[in-house]
Write a structure and sequence with these properties.
It is a single chain. The protein has 257 residues and is mainly alpha-helical. Helix content is 39%, strand content 5%. It has five helices and four strands. The protein has a two-stranded antiparallel sheet with strand order 1-2. A two-stranded antiparallel ribbon has the order 3-4. Strand 1 (126-128) and strand 2 (135-137) form a beta hairpin. Keywords: Cell projection, Cytoplasm, Cytoskeleton. It is found in: Cell projection, Cilium; Cytoplasm, Cytoskeleton.
Length: 257
């Protein structure tokens, strides 16, 4: 085994002075005296708690008497809290009524006239569910069809008529604008009679081609027969397409160019 030794230096032979560590100034809190005083107070009075430091302890002669803890109210003054009544037009005790005044009205005749001229009171219609049940009025119960007898029942309101007229006017303006735009582009609208006439012609052509198509032989041994059959099928499909378009759309425009 090989041993490792520290390298010798001549400077290590010179004695060195030991340096004493310099002590730093210790921090002292400014609240230290207060803390020390509080600790001493706690030691002298270990059972002391928060609250009033000194309490008055009554003597045995000062025992609790009846109604001692009840709040004492101030003495009521004379005429305190009494509200004066409002002034009334009451005659005084010494006032005497005016005597000798008589009315010339004949109350009997007037009552008879009022009874004759009075309109008989219309009885209210009521309903009772059972024999000894409660009575309730029928007019406001919803069981009677009151609104059927109104003058304006079933009449279209004015605001709905106005909306319909506005919508109709807007539709007419839109149609007029569209018609003008189509005329500028060279398109004309087909009338109903012209449309029906064109549809009849298309259906007639389809029937003629279909009749010829049905009369073809089943066995097609030549190319011209096959080409003729294919041509008739294409024409029939095209005619069916035109017929469906005319039946689907009520308004049809055609180009005049």
């Amino acid at each position: 085994m090989t041993a490792f030794y520290a390298e010798e230096i001549i400077y290590n032979l010179i004695p060195k002075e030991e340096k004493k560590p310099v002590k730093t100034v210790r921090f002292m809190s400014t609240f230290k005296p207060t803390v020390i005083r509080e600790i001493q107070e706690r030691k002298t009075a270990p059972s002391k708690t928060m609250g009033i430091p000194k309490l008055y302890i009554p003597t045995p002669r000062e025992f609790l008497r009846k109604h001692a803890n009840e709040p004492k109210l101030l003495k009521r003054r004379r005429n305190q809290g009494i509200k004066k009544p409002p002034g009334l037009n009451v005659p005084e005790r010494n006032d005497h009524p005016i005597m000798g005044i008589r009315s010339k009205k004949d109350y009997i005749s007037s009552n008879v006239a009022e009874a004759i001229m009075a309109v008989a009171k219309k009885p209210l219609r009521a309903c009772v569910d059972v024999r000894k049940g409660d009575k309730f009025l029928l007019d406001d119960s919803g069981l009677i069809q009151r609104y059927l007898h109104k003058k304006d029942f079933g009449v279209t309101p004015k605001y709905i008529k106005k909306r319909i007229m506005d919508a109709k006017k807007a539709q007419e303006e839109s149609d007029a604008y569209l018609q003008q735009a189509l005329l500028q582009k060279g398109l004309t609208r087909l009338s109903k009679a012209e449309k029906e006439k064109i549809m009849e012609g298309l259906k007639k052509n389809w029937e003629e081609i279909n009749h010829e198509y049905q009369s073809l032989s089943v066995f097609l041994d030549s190319i011209p027969r096959r080409l003729r059959k294919e041509k008739m099928e294409v024409e029939m499909m095209q005619l069916e397409h035109y017929i469906k378009l005319l039946e689907k759309h009520d308004i049809v425009y055609i180009s005049s160019v």
